[in-house]
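Quick one: structure tokens for this chain, please?
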Amino acid sequence: MHGIGNDFPIFDHTQPGAPSLEQIKAAAVALCDRRFGIGGDGTISILPSEKADFAMRMFNPDGSEAEMCGNGIRCFAKYVFDHGLSEKTELTVDTLAGIMVLILSVEAGKVTQVRVDMGEPRLERAQLPMEGPSGPVLHEPLKIGGELLYITGVSMGNPHIVFFPEQATDELILRIGPQLEKHPAFPRRTNVHAAHVVGRDELVMKIWERGAGPTLACGTGACAVGVAAHLNGLTGRDVLIHLPGGDLRIQWGINNRVYMTGSATLVYEGTIEL
């Protein structure tokens, strides 16, 4: 499945004979390989939960585990509804970043859009985490390879660093992304996003994902960009963000919760030997 180009093999662990989560974790690198496996920006597992309707776990293409994935959780929701695991159009999903609430738009018995309550952004440096004094990371100078960037840090359960160049280009994110991801200031590494402002309610962003590299979309990253743009006085609280794979609407409510709305698409179903 994919959410505006961010693609994932989805594994349903609620069915008899399904592989174990440990099997998927051990095989994540091979499964995400685009030549020798299925190919994907990470694996997503659907699990039962005692705290919510379902639980979600995600493993990156390098085998590390992600706390959450905004595009992935929309695919998760579409799979659950379209495959009859639940008839609810409001779902709760237990993730390593907390319990997420999803509102499903359904047409002709299939999910077309998913609105996700992504929770509150975490703005303290220690919540990213990032080395340095306490307080938010807002328009903070940081040297990368002799180049001075002004960065803003936002955690959406996973860490994001955002900067605002005049133009967000592929060349720029490919150059800056890997250096920032593994910068010693970030003990758990970080996701990196370059974004430029089109208008008070519109942005364009490029993505470098921790453990995955350049991707077509990142839902938690789009949330971080929307929050960071407003914190820097560049936009309002309701923005349309153009990602390489498609568009997401991000709303940072006055209740301090971030809402993300976008599509999810089934590409194909099949089997693979583990």
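The radius of gyration is 18 Å.
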